[in-house]
Amino acid sequence: MPATELLHLRIHIAENAFAMLRILLVDPSILGSAHQYKYSLAYIVNDECVLRYDNERGKGDHKHFSGQEFPVTFTTIENLIDSFQAEINLLRR
Predict the structure, then answer these.
(1) Domain range holding 59?
(2) What is the model's pTM?
(3) Are 43 and 52 in contact (CB under 8 A)?
């Protein structure tokens, strides 16, 4: 599976928290996804992953939160990042 890295970024959020974003352009698409991105967006607090958006092979677009998986509707990579950021903001309140 050829891939081109589009983004690999660690964002400091607080003394004990950061976000890690990794986005790849892939061809062919990941099994279960209808787009050509492979991504993992993780919010880490006190060395624990509190929230993660990803599209593991065969599972499609989803997020992990509180020990459960929930489907995510993918429209654009920008909207995905915006949704991820909005959830981080809610969790930080």
Answers:
(1) 3-91
(2) 0.93
(3) yes
